[in-house]
Amino acid sequence: MPRVQLLHGVRTSWNLYDREALQALTEHPWFSYTPVVSEDPGFHGVQGTVGAVAARGRDLTGVTALVCGSPAMVTATVAALTTAGMPRHAIRFETFGQAPTTDQVGRSVDKVAQWM
């Protein structure tokens, strides 16, 4: 059975909707849940942008990433993953609003490389 690792990225901890329900799913051996908060220094857990957290320190070989969120978050996450070595064809995404173009994602790779 494929493993699912959900990185739930939000700006502040109060945006972690359905946290209890998502945590309850971890009773299944194939599912893990990690809340990631980017703009709440008081949060006791994983902090940073979800793209940077997804890209750092992981073996991305054979992994498929499913990214969903705002156009800016999707663009940054796709850029972080490709910069970390994940092939673009292994990344699927959708946005809340207008989807980023391939050119926008490509331009973001250089910017994200500077963050990491």
Descriptive account of the structure:
- This protein is α/β, with parallel strands linked by helices and 116 residues long.
- The chain has four helices and five strands.
- The chain has helices at residues 19-24, 50-55, 71-83, 102-115; strands at 4-10, 31-37, 46-47, 65-69, 91-95.
- The strands form two sheets. A three-stranded parallel beta sheet has the order 1-2-3.
- Helix 3 links the parallel strand 4 and strand 5 (91-95).
- Helix 3 packs across helix 4.
- It is globular, with a radius of gyration of 14 Å.
- The termini are far apart.
- Residues 109-116 have low confidence and may be disordered.
Mean pLDDT: 87
Our count of helices gives 4
Poorly predicted parts:
109-116
The largest sheet is: 3 strands, parallel
What attributes does this structure have?
5 strands, single chain, alpha/beta, globular, two-stranded parallel sheet, three-stranded parallel β-sheet, disordered C terminus, 116 residues
Q: How are the secondary structure elements laid out?
A:
Blueprint: E1 4-10, H1 19-24, E2 31-37, E3 46-47, H2 50-55, E4 65-69, H3 71-83, E5 91-95, H4 102-115
Parallel strand pairs: 1-2, 2-3, 4-5
What's the quick description here?
The protein has 116 residues and is α/β, with parallel strands linked by helices.
